[in-house]
What does this fold into?
Amino acid sequence: MTTSVTVLGLGAMGQALAAAFVRAGHPTTVWNRSAGRDAELAAAGAKSARTVAEAVTASDLVVACLLDHRSVHEVLDPVTDILADRALVNLTTTEPRGSRELAEWAAKHGIDFLDGGIMAVPPMIGQPGSSVLYSGSRQLFDEHRTTLELLGSAEYFGTDAGQAALVDFALLAGMYTMFAGFYHGAAMVRAIGMSAEDFGQRASGWIAAMTGSLPQAGATIDSGDYSKPFQPLDFTKAAVDAIVSASRDAGVDLDIIGAIKNLVDRQVADGYGAQSSERMFESLNPRAA
It folds into this structure.
């Protein structure tokens, strides 16, 4: 038997989620606050609901992909009586504390709740490389896992509904910081007339090669032993100081590289210059005394 699914919210991601369910043959109902975004889905076989109540009533599994945490409440608070005894999966981008609040709200109203973080852009949904991180109701995850895996690989992080969002945001923090570093480099090479596209071609292979060392860097951080450096902080400081100087000469602001310099300088000032560069992590998250 195929699970009936309702998707609430038809932004680019919501449309991609609904399309994945439709392609797999699941009876799919869609709803959006503003009209006109359901035409393509309806042509593919989805049913358009005029109201949230109609949409929720139509399915056993309800997937919310809305603007933000507040919009989840605005849309779902009026239909808690209909949602009771149904499965609700929140794929709205939500802070961990918001995910936990929604889990408490759902429990109060007898709603089985699972929170998710989507690690993909809309065109990736249902394709290799797409993944969704989940936490909350283990029963819901197990019961609907096959359906959820239509969106991408599904990984469960535990009953604390905020855990998936925290991992999601941590991965996004790494991504955005990486892109910011690329933007800084592109600004530097503009001084010699190199295009950002050309620099991007050069940076993509270099960055990809460097990311292979991340698991080992993580192992060093977890061990707390920075005494056997591949690259000591003193060396990193000399390199970063030189990059800062070159950035100034190229007329580039120090918002990005200046933050890295600050982390390195703090560790060197505390006497850890001979230790591994991974130790700058301790400037962000020092161990409890």
Observations:
- DSSP finds 13 helices and eight strands in the chain.
